[in-house]
Amino acid sequence: MKVWYDETDTLIQNHNYKKALYQLENTQPVDKKKIKDVHKKANKFAQKELKHIQAILTKKQWSKAENLLEALLAKVPSSQAILKVQEQLNQQRHHEQLDQTIKVQVARANLLLAKQSNFEFQSRDKGNSFWNYTNNQLKTDIIHTADELLSLSKQSLNIEHLDNAQLALNYAKKLNKNLIIDDLKKTIKAKLLKRSLKIIKQKQSLYMSQLKKAINDENFEQIIHLTSTLSNPKFKGRDLNLLIEKANLIRHKNAQEMNLSADQAYRLGHIKEAIQLWQQAQTLHPQLPGISDKISRAQKVSNKLDNLRQSQGQ
User: What CA–CA distances, in Å, run from 245 to 175, 208, 240, 249?
Assistant: First the structure.
């Protein structure tokens, strides 16, 4: 028995938990406590390895990830976590393969369209005999590629790769104008619109959160920037309108306070300070009544004072 346990411990040290468990489970008496301990060690080891494999997947190194998964499954029992990563690998690999296939077929479509244009020229230049001789194979290639692109468009739609679905469909139609694609075209268009609206909604939510924070912090530079961004017609909603109204009220209030401070500075003869305050007030609230006239008048006074100082200095 001592020799057997030494062997099991060696397997565990080498992270060969699967074989160690097999031996433990098939040896009498069954050491349930040791089996439980090995399962814990196997799970901990698997988690560490899966984290590494996930990093490999982000780099799209499919073969390396596959080899690491196979090596892991040789050492530990299969689990939901491992199966999930396997599924992720297969899915991501298939998606890239589909994207690459579309790129190849689009390039082929462009080549066929260029050949078609050239053959049309040759037909006009050399006569129908040349055109009839060369056109049959081209037509076959065009129809076959159009069908392939149509199939790829449907596959891309199934995995929500909408841009590729639309790209493949557009080229399929370019190659074969007789293809019936109305339903597929409508489906892709509807999904693209839905995706666009979702992105807009997410952006609006983010910008609104940022604007709320800017209001609380009285960060007027951010308030001005975000209210301008959220004023885009694509952003909508009652809550948004109320938030923009609140931001504009704060801008107006602070602009008025700066305007009064500028008036006071101007009366005390602090012309440049007054100009700076009025300019800040104008930035906050461009429609503030009389602000442009005040800045213009103060700048003229400032220029006269500067000229007077220069003449006195001479």
Answer: 53, 12, 9, 6
